[in-house]
Each structure stands twice: as structure tokens, then as C-alpha cells.
């Protein structure tokens, strides 16, 4: 499948450029070109104490206009091992996101994302309940550096006894080109939930774009608190699947 996605350069350059949301946790406020269906996929491996988790996350993105769009995201496959050595495999949960972009000028945009998570994973992999989230986005170009800042709240369908039901999250991502085809991303992000330890991580990634219609990323994230995953490794790509209108 990868060989089909990596089209020859002459063919890959035909059409509109893509707008990658990978590899950061934070999303940009802007939407892809209206009518162009974009696909993001990758691999993610994380370690938390004695537990391991490997997954294949994916995202489909489609904008109806420069202001409105929809995302479908989830995990096509998950393999998890807890600290006791018990293993579980299956698909992950699935999330549908309605997105509204407010483009203020060529360098600044605001965004709102309303998401609903369907519990398509079995309980040993997911929470077994639906979640609803609202994410606010501020994106701005600071010279050669692009900044995305996200602040969100998620109403959890399932929570541990003694903890809250609304989890807040934050992320600040900074990316910049380092050459015609290579770029770099640095990000800090985290979550808070009443009655539970806060999480935080530092993410560093490199991106390679041989054409405006293909982006490949590779990176690592390191936990900054005891409740965060110790480390995560990831890689993925972004391609257009076709122009629907």
C-alpha cells in the first residue's frame, strides 16, 4: 500500500498541496483545500513503566469550505501489554470531529473543533464509553515559525472513582522549515483531571516533503511527569486521496 501512496514526483505534484495535522498533538486552525480528501496514517509505539502499546493511528480530513470541515480519526490496530504481561489486540476507538475555521488574515487563524468519540474498541483497549470534546485553536505565523496553540475540554463517559469527569488538555506546537524539503517541530502538551496526576510531554519531530502533496514524519516524545508515558516513538505520512469536487 505504501508504494501506491508514494506516487512518482511528476504525478504527485499535480493538484493542490496538502495540509498536514501530523505529527504534533496540537491541530492547526486552518482546513485543507475544500473538496480534497486527505489521509494521514502512521505507527506509534509507547512505553509506560512495564506496559507497552503499539498502534496504527489514522485520520481522514475533508473541508466543505474554507470555514467548515470534518475529520474521522481512530486507530486501525492496537496491540497492548500491561504491567502483568497480559496482551490485548484489536481496533481502537473512533472519533468524528466537526471543525470551524476563522481565518483572520494570511498569518493568523482561530479554530473550534467539536468531537464525539465512539467506543469502537473493546474495554481492555478503550474506555468502553463515549466522550465529547471541545477544542479551541490559535494559529499564527511568526516569521519562519508556525505556531499552533490548543486548549480543550473533554467530558469523559467513564472515569475512575474519586476523579472528575471533565479532562482539560493543552498543547503548544512550533514548526519551521530547515531546508526546501525538511522541517522541524517542537511541542509541549499535557492534560489535567481532578483527582488524577497531571500529564505532560515534550515532542520533537522531523518532517520531509519531497512534493507539496506528500509529507513524511519521524519523531519521539518524552514524558515530563510520572503519570505520562515514559517515551513514544512515531512515524507517518500525509497524502491526498482525491479531489471530490
Report on the structure:
The chain is mainly β and 245 residues long. The protein is 3% helix and 62% strand. It has 2 helices and 13 strands. Strands 1-2-3-5-6-7-8-9-10-11-12-13 form a 12-stranded antiparallel beta barrel. Strand 9 and strand 10 form a beta hairpin. It starts with a helix and ends with a strand. 29% of the residues are buried.
- Overall form: globular
Task: Enumerate the strands of the largest sheet in spatial order, edge to edge or round the barrel.
Answer: 1-2-3-5-6-7-8-9-10-11-12-13
Number of helices: 2
Mean pLDDT: 94
What pattern of helices and strands is seen along the backbone? Answer: HHEEEEEEEEEEEEE
Main β-sheet: number of strands, strand sense, barrel status?
A: 12 strands, antiparallel, barrel
In helices, the fraction of residues equals under 10%
Low-confidence sequence ranges: 1-12
How would the blueprint of this fold be written?
Blueprint lengths: L1 H4 L3 H4 L23 E13 L2 E13 L4 E14 L5 E4 L3 E10 L4 E11 L12 E12 L2 E11 L10 E12 L4 E12 L2 E16 L2 E10 L7 E13 L2
Antiparallel strand pairs: 1-2, 1-13, 2-3, 3-4, 3-5, 5-6, 6-7, 7-8, 8-9, 9-10, 10-11, 11-12, 12-13
Amino acid at each position: 500500500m505504501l508504494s501506491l501512496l508514494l506516487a512518482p514526483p511528476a504525478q504527485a505534484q499535480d493538484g493542490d498541496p496538502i495540509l498536514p495535522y501530523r505529527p504534533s498533538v496540537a491541530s492547526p486552525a486552518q482546513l485543507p483545500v475544500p473538496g480534497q480528501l486527505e489521509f494521514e496514517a502512521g505507527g506509534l509505539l509507547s512505553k509506560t513503566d512495564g506496559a507497552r502499546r503499539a498502534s496504527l493511528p489514522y485520520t481522514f480530513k475533508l473541508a466543505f469550505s474554507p470555514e467548515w470541515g470534518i475529520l474521522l480519526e481512530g486507530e486501525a490496530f492496537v496491540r497492548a501489554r500491561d504491567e502483568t504481561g497480559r496482551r490485548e489486540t484489536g481496533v481502537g476507538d473512533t472519533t468524528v470531529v466537526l471543525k470551524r475555521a476563522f481565518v483572520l488574515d494570511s498569518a493568523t487563524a482561530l479554530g473550534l473543533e467539536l468531537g464525539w468519540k465512539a467506543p469502537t474498541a473493546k474495554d481492555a483497549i478503550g474506555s468502553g464509553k463515549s466522550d465529547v470534546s471541545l477544542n479551541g485553536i490559535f494559529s499564527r505565523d511568526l516569521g519562519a515559525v508556525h505556531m499552533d496553540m490548543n486548549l480543550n475540554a473533554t467530558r469523559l463517559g467513564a472515569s475512575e472513582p474519586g476523579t472528575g469527569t471533565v479532562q482539560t488538555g493543552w498543547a503548544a506546537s512550533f514548526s519551521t522549515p530547515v531546508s526546501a524539503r525538511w522541517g522541524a517541530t517542537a511541542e509541549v502538551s499535557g492534560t489535567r483531571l481532578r483527582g488524577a496526576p497531571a500529564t505532560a510531554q515534550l515532542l520533537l519531530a522531523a518532517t520531509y516533503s519531497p512534493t507539496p502533496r506528500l509529507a513524511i514524519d519521524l519523531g519521539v516524545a518524552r514524558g515530563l511527569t510520572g503519570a505520562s508515558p515514559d517515551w513514544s516513538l512515531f512515524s507517518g505520512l500525509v497524502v491526498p486521496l482525491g479531489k471530490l469536487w
